């Protein structure tokens, strides 16, 4: 699956709708400290179903909503949409009948998160599974945050195994087994 566009609205410092086009090859994002480069990576994790506030460098889930600046009031919701080129039909079963996938996550204050795939309401789990089966996702080793290299080097064997399992695309199977055992 190839990511082709990321759109942020009211997410962290991106108060107005902002598109990041992801072309073939390497895309670099450069800018001064604090301009929002890491926020873009967090938006990508978030739209794929990230639910740990610490990974999002906040203390609560609603901390991703634009909190206001001297000249702009705070927003009531944050939305990230991720467009995926699926012309090669590499999406997992159930999501594989169109040329592009549009995944949207929106969080509204005091309401919580809602997800859509191609304008259809889905559960968080559906989105998380979609990416887990495609060997990517919020916990993917392909997303390396600032400071994470050091973490990887210091990881205990069990934690390192999790990273390898995520890379092998089998973490979705563990999740399903865990849910089956609970039933
Ligand atoms: P560096 O080069 O230092 O790593 P960066 O480009 O990665 O910087 P980010 O960490 O992405 O920068 O952006 C930080 C900015 O985002 C800060 O100015 C912070 O105030 C702003 N920010 C984070 N969360 C919110 C929020 N909820 N509302 C408004 N602004 C926010
Ligand atoms: Mg940064």
Could you explain how this protein is built, in words?
The chain has 183 residues and is an alpha+beta fold. It has one domain: Rossmann fold (3-Layer(aba) Sandwich), CATH 3.40.50.300. The protein is 28% helix and 21% strand. It contains five helices and six strands; from the N terminus they run ββαββββαααα. The protein has helices at residues 37-47, 124-133, 148-154, 157-168, 171-182, and strands at residues 2-9, 18-21, 77-85, 100-108, 112-117, 120-122. It has a six-stranded antiparallel β-sheet with strand order 2-1-3-4-5-6. A hairpin with a 3-residue loop joins β4 (100-108) and β5. The longest helix is centred in the C-terminal third of the chain and has 12 residues, at 157-168. The radius of gyration is 17 Å and the shape is globular. The two termini are 32 Å apart. The protein binds adenosine-5'-triphosphate and magnesium ion.
């Amino acid at each position: 699956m190839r990511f082709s566009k990321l759109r942020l609205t009211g997410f962290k410092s991106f108060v107005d709708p902002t598109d990041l086009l992801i072309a073939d090859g390497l895309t670099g994002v450069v800018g001064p400290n604090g301009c929002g480069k890491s926020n873009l990576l967090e938006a990508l994790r978030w739209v794929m179903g990230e639910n740990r506030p610490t990974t999002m460098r906040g203390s609560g889930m609603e901390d991703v909503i634009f909190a206001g600046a001297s000249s702009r009031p705070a927003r009531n919701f944050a939305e990230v949409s991720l467009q995926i080129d699926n012309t090669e039909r590499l999406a997992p079963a159930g999501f594989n009948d169109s040329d592009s996938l549009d995944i949207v996550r929106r969080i509204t204050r005091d309401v919580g998160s809602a997800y859509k795939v191609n304008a259809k309401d889905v559960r968080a789990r559906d989105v998380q599974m979609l990416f887990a089966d495609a060997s990517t996702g919020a916990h993917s080793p392909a997303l390396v945050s600032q400071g994470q290299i050091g973490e990887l080097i210091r990881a205990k064997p069990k934690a390192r195994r999790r990273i390898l399992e995520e890379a092998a695309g089998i973490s979705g199977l563990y999740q399903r087994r865990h849910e089956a055992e609970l039933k």
